[in-house]
Amino acid sequence: MGKRHGPEEIIGKLREAEIILAQGGTTGDACRRIAVTEQTYYRWRKEYGGLKTDWPAGYFLPA
Splitting the chain (63 residues) into consecutive groups of 10 residues, what average pLDDT does each group show? Predict the structure, then answer.
């Protein structure tokens, strides 16, 4: 089994992937840069996509 990422780390990686995609990169490129599979990327985006890093820690974390 691989490494478990914390919610703050996941949100940071999703933000980094958004930047790559905004610069014209592909989803595959973004996933390679943040070192996760596309399946994990899409799962994280579904679970954490609406969260913002400026919210207080523990404000709302999906189960």
Answer: 82 92 94 96 87 55 53
Residues 21 and 27 sit within 8 Å (Cβ to Cβ): yes
Compute the distance between CA of residue 55 and CA of residue 2 in angstroms, rounded to an integer: 27
| Radius of gyration over every alpha carbon of the chain, rounded to an integer in angstroms | 12
Structure tokens at 61: 């974390």
- Residue recorded with tokens 């990686």: 13
User: C-alpha dihedral over 24, 25, 27, 33, to 10 degrees?
Assistant: -140
DSSP helix/strand/coil, 49: coil
Structure tokens at 19: 């930047």
